[in-house]
Design a protein that fits this description.
This protein has 300 residues and is mainly alpha-helical. The chain has 13 helices and no strands. It has one domain.
Amino acid sequence: MWNNRRIPAARLNVLLAALCFGTTGTAQALGPDASAVTVGAARIAVGAVLLLLVRRAVAREPAARWARGPAAVAALGVAGYQLCFFAAVKDTGVAVGTVVALGSAPALAGAGGWLLDRRPPGRAWLAATTLACAGVALLALAGGGSQVSAPGVALAVGAGASYALFTLAAKRLLDAGHAVESVMACAFGWGAVLLVPVLVLGDLSWVASAGGAAMALWLGAIPTAVAYLLFARGLRHLPASEVATLTLGEPVTAAVLGAVVLGERPGALAVAGILVILGGLAVLALPRARTAPAPAEVPV
């Protein structure tokens, strides 16, 4: 049963996770030149180790049977997002790849939650998701034009689907009573195993430099381990569709950090995109905070 009193704190946790996610691009820009695929795989490997250590230190849950299906889907979602997203960006450009991947994830998570839980997303979610995705599109357009490639768009949709599957599967495991730390350690631990071939076959020479090691540690610690623990704490009390929409705060953080840290100067289109995303997130967060508590719902 969901506790409505915990919903504001849960939303805050997801927004803080999005803030952590948003540091990824700046960290990569400040680090050495390296293959994005190997950076992504190294990030997951470092994050998995840290999550396993956290789980060992703090998780105190009774032995419970793990549902293999959701656990496997969560791990596939972790690995699939890394591979599909970076391949999409390489094929069709950062702007198109980002907007399709980020924009499709909330819609796919909402559709998946509807099919699995027989619970259609509400009007507030639909309005918020529409606004937030429009804002992401404006940010992407502000970043420059790209040639649209059908295979690249398909890969970006695959990245969005992978993220949606991870979110839905993690929600299932959390609803089954598993600890936040255990669910994230399981998903990222097995996800890292699936990405071992990338680390074995890819060029990891960048890790040997001080800047490369610092980048790998930051990416594994902040936008992975810390971010996904916050993400999961929010996901325990919110629908997967709402969580996927709230994480669209990530590009806002990335744009602000780009301006403050990297000296980028966002134009009017980028500023408009940021404001539209923030408006969408406000639509999602505010209406239900002012209404009577909704009837208790029992996740499937």
